[in-house]
Amino acid sequence: MQQARAQNQELRLVTQIRQDTERRLAALNLAPLEPIMAEKFPNPGQLAAGQLQVSTNVYGLQLKQNPVFRYQVTIEGILVPMEGRERKPIAFTGNVRGDPVCVSRRDDCRKIFLKTLETYRNDFKHPREHYFYDLKSILFTLEQLPIVDKKQYELGTAPDFYTHCQKIVVTVQKVTEKFQLTTGDIRTYVSPDLGQVDRSLQQFLEIAVSQPILFDPENHVVINGGSTYFMDPTKFGFSDRDTPALREGKYLAVGAQKSVRFVEGPRGRGFNNASVIVNPKKTPFHNAQPLIDKVAEMVRLGRDGRVERYDIENLRKGLKGLFVQSTHREVSRIMRIVDIIDETARNSIIPGNEKVGEISIENYFQRTYGIVLKYPEAPLVGIRVPRYREGVMKFPIEVLKVVDNQRVTTEQQSREQIAQQIRACAVLPSLQKEQIQKCANAIHLFNNPNLDAVGIKVVPNPLTTNARMLPQPAIVYGGGTQPINPDNRGTWQGGVGRGPQAQSYKFLIPASCNKWEAYLIDPHARDAIDQATMTEFLKRLATEARRRGMQIGAPATISTVAANEKALKAVLDKAIQTRMEFVFFIHAGRDTHLHGLMKYFELNGIITQDLKAQTASNVVSKGQNQTMENIVMKTNMKLGGLNHAVTISNPELVRMLGKEVLYIGFGTNHPGGGLGEIGLLKKRSKLGFAANDNPHPFEFTGDYVFQETRRDEKVDVMKDIITKILDRYIKNRNAAPKCVIIYRNGCSEGQFGDVIFGVIFFN
Predict the structure, then answer these.
(1) Where is the PAZ domain (predicted)?
(2) What pTM value is reported for the model?
(3) Are strands 516-521 and 582-587 parallel, antiparallel or unpaired?
């Protein structure tokens, strides 16, 4: 019932958005477009610097004509009545939030499904390979089940089978639409009219390919249907170097991402082939460990667990949304951290009631559980507990443990961790090719009994195809220098990394800065630089900037600031009052949250740049000239300059890079799943956009706005964004564009029809 209710709500929302879009278009005297994809070019393009053959990560599927039948599965756990009242059943196949909860529910559904097959063999009498279950609500079978409409299968409980339930009820029901499909006829399921596309075959193939990993929990962790993470990557040919440990109780997990796609295949235009695309996947996960151990890796714990006030925000950023369990009870459910509270078990008081008077959390744990807290001065963890009168329940950190199988969200990562992950994921093409094959073997792509049962063969070698090597562009700097062509390694050297005596390649548009200052954050940190090093670094910064054509003098102030929001805010407030244009920070210490405050103050016109103290030290002590030049390039862009442009000799491409063409790019970023905020606290999707609407065609203006979560088709601010971009373009170039190219990124394939229907109406 809950699942059906949620689906109905989603359908109502989609209808509402569609009707709203129709009204908006009607107000502009426009009609919605039919969701039909543009025709393909009859032949590939001809522009090329050379031809080559490339290997892909696409494995072909050879299909036979076989019927397949689809059913909907609902699994409920009926609980024992409490005090004579019926209790809400456990919806095992319902929607859940959070990675560990999702993995746990998949484990439940797997266990219950296999028990159903074993218990009701008269109905499920065919080999196990004839059943394709997604461990949620979709079941495909090769033979029809003896079900007229729907049928319920009851399972009794046992000491090793859901003793907390009275019984388990599995309901299997025929779907009302597309009950039967045929595996061999691909053309039936492919159409340029997105409104008519039938994705049932694609869905079946996705589930069929996933069967070995879904039913092998000893070796695979599946959070969503498209990817798996390996319990022991060394079993599949990966090494420990592929799974480096990260700081703050995290590690990089290795897995595989796979998806079924219909492609033209080796015979080219006009043909349709089913295929599986396989990619290695590396994702940061939280270690399953005591929460206090994780906290000790994140911040410095003082006596009795005391934490510096500025580290509270670091903990809040790194732990909010994390799933934990308590260790002081025999049975503990999975709970989500909603806040880190700046109180301690020693000074936080639990309100009294008619049985117990007011008591500190420290004394409560000692009196109730016999636990003497080791860290009574540590901050408390806030967890929202249903029906708890205070809303958020406070827990000592040391009585909680991190639950296994949960990915690290973007919000829980520092810039340094993201950079470390990027380095770990960047591999040479030859190694990438090896890892693709290892992943294909790991997911049993070539040894899948379910695929064998339905007569599907997987082509053992990935698809190879002819490719064009496009002409490489040249880099154009300022100062009348000649364009710089790439060397034989495909890199463009513009004096970069050659030091102060190298040929001076001026920036195309050098910026100027009349008033600026510099500060060292956290001067008492272990990695802080001294005054002499800081002064020398800033001198080299200004020298390199002037060498590149920028107009910039010495900083008006060189000083230090404590690593807390109050001190930093005072510095930035003063900078606003004294009309500073730019503030350069050299950041020592372990703080990670002050960077956000710097960016926030840019709303007041203060441009900021933040650099790690270790990087500044390396520039001075090791003479890392290329690093300094990269820093100055970033400074020039921040101050409104333009480092360089690109050019290419082909006349058609030169025209497309000219001043009469406006490029607009949109990208959507959705919040990570599983956090479950509600109301005003609910995280919203971000719509980022950029356009070359400045005087020079390579000068882009970028910004972002918020929109309703995960509604790719509802971009109700699109009209305002386009209007502002066009106004800025006309103001800067004294003419309207002759060509507008809109690039859209970040929306799912299933939403393409909605995007065409309601967004692409500017032509």
Answers:
(1) 290-404
(2) 0.85
(3) parallel
